[in-house]
Each structure stands twice: as structure tokens, then as C-alpha cells.
Design a protein that fits this description.
Length: about 350
């Protein structure tokens, strides 16, 4: 029986995009798992899936001596810089999420990251990316040596929770780990032009950029109107998406853009930067900031919300229909087909 190992070690951080991707990938794969294959999950020591599964657990030998690792027919790393790599007898599938380090890191460090990625690409038997934009980035910066790169868009789970009423002020929402690439600071002067609205910036803000945002909120006198609750659980995320006037996502670097689809699945209008993968993911149902100046962003929001509010039910249905294509079922079906192809 063919044996497949899936590296879901990023599940140790469920507040990160990679953590959520890993858990949802594993659960969706279990739902489609073939009986003629044995799937094992390389998972954190204290992590287990809701349904019965086979596990391999990390240790120092597996990490530093990959040649000694058990040979699996397929070893699938769910991100491009795994800490654990297969031995030479395993066919390695590598999923690449982004090359954001080209924007985030200084030149010397970016060069080292590129060298690591090139090494992993050279070793990989098959390569997937989560967007056409990421594939384009690979083609521009990595020597693929003739290897095919397949695009398999992420699956996105519809946020769910208990319906509730919102009796407070109208608010805009943005969500993500507080890193400079998220460009949250562009939203703060914007709020001075929407005095009747609040802004919620949710996500892990225990970062240097998070401290900068908090300082700018104080400097602009927005402490009563800009709310920074930190990481939120699924119930609270559902509530925030459900009641926001619009989801604002001015990020400058995304390999995919998970929160964009989550907001769309609940029928909320989304406003995005036109950078990296976001036009691909948002399609023609999203609104886009062509200019990150506060007045230009305010004009875009005002004009586009008039379009949305002219027939909100119809527009919400268009958003949900667009977002539905990014299902975990569709994502995993493509990976299962790839596994079958690799196994021959």
C-alpha cells in the first residue's frame, strides 16, 4: 500500500495562515482519503485531528538527519521552508505559498532565502503554488530547470458561529498578523474622513509593527474608534465579518489572501490593494484601491458602497458565488489527483 506523509507541523500556531491551512488541509484530506493509500501526518507532539489518523512526531534526528527518515512514497511539505525534509527515496511535493521575503527582508537576507528555496525546488519531485501570482514569482526568481509548477488555489472554510445582533456603531474590519506588509497604517488617516464609523483591526498584534500601529492610533486621537482586539476565535471572527460595513484589506504582499474569501463567503463587500495575488483572488467582485492616499481611498469606499447598497442582496450573492470556487473539496481533489499521478 502506498504511503504518503503530510507535513502539518505549522498546526502548532493556529493563529497563523499556515497553521490554519495545515489543519484544514489535513481535515479535508481525511474526508477524501483513499482506502488504497495510507496517509500519515507529521504533526506537533500535542496535536491530533478530530478523526482517527496516523501520526509521525518530530524529533531532532528527523530534522537534522533527513537521510535517515523513513522512506515514504510521497512526502508533501505544505510550505516552502519546512524544518523537516524527506530522505532521498521519497518523492517530495513542495507547496510554495509566496515569495514575500523579497519585499520584507533586506537584500542580503532575501538572497539567502532565495538560495534555500532554490535548493528545495531542485530537490522537489513536484511543485505547487497557491496562486498564479506565486507561480509567476517563482518563474522570475528561481531556476525551475524545466519542472512544471501547478497552481492549486487554497481552500477556504466558510466562517461559522452563532448569529448575533450588532447594536453599536457601524465599523470597517481588517484582519491579519500585524506585519508591515499588511499596510494597516494606511487605514488610520482614512478613519478621520469617516467620523461615523469605527475600525476593527483584528489579529496577532504582538509585533513591532503592532506597537507602531497602536502609537499612531494614539497620535491621531482615534483611541475611541480604532479597536485592536488581538487574535480572535472563530466565533468572534464570524461576528466581526457578519456585521462589518466592509472588509478593508490594503495588503501589499499576499500569496493568496484568505481573509478576503472569508469575508466574501459571508457576503460582505471587500476593498483590496491591487498588489500581488489580490486581483487574482478578488476577481471582478472586489473593489480596489488604486491610490493609498486617505482621500482617494475614501472616495473609492463611498462610491463603491453606493454600488453595493443599490442592491445588497444581489451583490452579496455574487460575492458568495465567486468565493465558493475556493472550496476545500475542490482543493483536495486536485491534490489527490496529483498524488495518484506521482504514484504512477
Amino acid at each position: 500500500m502506498p504511503e504518503i506523509l503530510i507535513d502539518i507541523l505549522k498546526a502548532k500556531d493556529l493563529n497563523s495562515g499556515l497553521g490554519q491551512f495545515s489543519v484544514n488541509f489535513a481535515e479535508a484530506l481525511q474526508a477524501q482519503q483513499r482506502r488504497d493509500q495510507r496517509v500519515t501526518f507529521l504533526a506537533p507532539a500535542d496535536f491530533s485531528l478530530p478523526n482517527e489518523a496516523h501520526y509521525d512526531r518530530p524529533n531532532w534526528r528527523k530534522r537534522y538527519f533527513p537521510a535517515l527518515n523513513k522512506p515514504y512514497d510521497i512526502w508533501h511539505s505544505l510550505h516552502q521552508f519546512p524544518s523537516f525534509r524527506p530522505g532521498p527515496r521519497s518523492k517530495w511535493i513542495l507547496t510554495v505559498h509566496d515569495l514575500n521575503f523579497l519585499l520584507e527582508k533586506e537584500a542580503a537576507k532575501s538572497k539567502r532565502y532565495l538560495a534555500r528555496l532554490q535548493h528545495n525546488i531542485d530537490r522537489a519531485y513536484a511543485i505547487t503554488t497557491i496562486s498564479h501570482f506565486t507561480r509567476y514569482e517563482l518563474e522570475q526568481h528561481i531556476d525551475l530547470r524545466g519542472k512544471q509548477v501547478r497552481v492549486i488555489h487554497n481552500g477556504v472554510r466558510t466562517p461559522s458561529g452563532t448569529p448575533s445582533e450588532h447594536r453599536g456603531r457601524p465599523y470597517f474590519l481588517s484582519l491579519g498578523v500585524f506585519k508591515e506588509k499588511k499596510n494597516f497604517h494606511a487605514l488610520l488617516p482614512l478613519m478621520t474622513l469617516f467620523p461615523e464609523h469605527d475600525l476593527v483591526l483584528a489579529g496577532n498584534n504582538n509585533t513591532a509593527y503592532g506597537e507602531r500601529i497602536k502609537a499612531e492610533v494614539r497620535e491621531l486621537g482615534l483611541g475611541e474608534r480604532v479597536h485592536i482586539p488581538g487574535a480572535v476565535d472563530e466565533q468572534e471572527k464570524f461576528r466581526l465579518y457578519s456585521h462589518c460595513e466592509a472588509f478593508l484589506f490594503p495588503s501589499l504582499a499576499e500569496g493568496f489572501g484568505l481573509p478576503v474569501i472569508e469575508a466574501m463567503l459571508l457576503g460582505r463587500p471587500v476593498f483590496l490593494s491591487n498588489a500581488t495575488s489580490l486581483p487574482e483572488i478578488g476577481g471582478d467582485v472586489a473593489f480596489y484601491f488604486g491610490d493609498m492616499g486617505a482621500e482617494a481611498m475614501a472616495r473609492e469606499i463611498t462610491a463603491s458602497m453606493m454600488v453595493f447598497n443599490n442592491d445588497p442582496d444581489v451583490f452579496s450573492d455574487r460575492l458568495k458565488e465567486h468565493a465558493a470556487q475556493f472550496s476545500w473539496d475542490a482543493c483536495i481533489r486536485k491534490y489527490v489527483a496529483l498524488y495518484a499521478e506521482v504514484l504512477g
